[in-house]
Specification:
CATH topology: Rossmann fold
CATH class: Alpha Beta
Radius of gyration: 18 Å
Shape: globular
Strand order of the largest sheet: 1-4-3-2
Number of domains: 1
Structural class: alpha/beta
Number of strands: 4
Length: 192
């Protein structure tokens, strides 16, 4: 048995013969819980691997390797209609250039504007975006652990980037192409 300890890349585990404990029967349950999910668990609890599993399952660019990744797993034998039906934000411009047929306008001054430009490109496409954010609260945990409370409060106050970013995500769920979100976190520091 090849132990996948500390490997959170589902595709790497599956294609390189590492042991994988099949929990894919939870994918339909995840779909039924809601469209916008926050999954909080302690460190070293498998959050990143689960996120990677979901990304590979929903990514429309993984359709060609679906059987290699999932055929012998529960979900491979019982796929849902959402399998391989979403854009997944990773190397977006590279991965989906053949579908988008237009360049994403990057605003070097505003990540939010760049994200909205991406959404404008996909808003008229059949496929929508499934956004995965791993450890959304990592920055807050790092700041608090290093006793940099002033920086923490600057990042989480009313006029901060974080609030603007999540407002932008909320707006994007209202017909702008963002259909689903799955966020993981260690603790709810940034919601205090």
């Amino acid at each position: 048995m090849k132990n996948p300890y500390a490997i959170s890349d589902f595709e790497k585990i599956r294609l390189n013969g590492f042991e994988y404990i099949d929990r894919t029967d939870r994918i339909p349950q995840t779909e039924n819980v809601g469209q916008y999910l926050l999954f909080l668990r302690p460190r070293r609890f498998g959050k990143s691997l689960w996120l990677s599993t979901l990304k590979n399952y929903y990514d429309l660019n993984k359709k060609d390797v679906f059987d290699r990744l999932f055929a012998d797993l529960w979900i491979g034998k019982n796929p849902t209609p959402m399998a391989n039906q979403y854009f997944v934000l990773k190397r977006f411009a590279f991965d989906y250039a053949h579908i988008l047929k237009a360049k994403i306008e990057i605003d070097p001054e505003s990540g939010i504007n760049s994200f909205e430009n991406l959404l404008a490109l996909i808003s008229n496409k059949t496929h929508k975006l499934y956004l995965f954010i791993d450890e959304y609260d990592n920055f807050a945990n790092e700041l608090m652990a290093s006793k940099r409370e002033d920086e923490y409060y600057k990042m989480t106050d009313l006029d901060c980037f974080l609030k603007s970013f999540f407002k932008s995500l909320k707006s994007a769920t209202e017909g702008m192409g963002l259909d689903r979100m799955f966020l993981t976190g260690v603790t709810p520091y940034s919601s205090q």
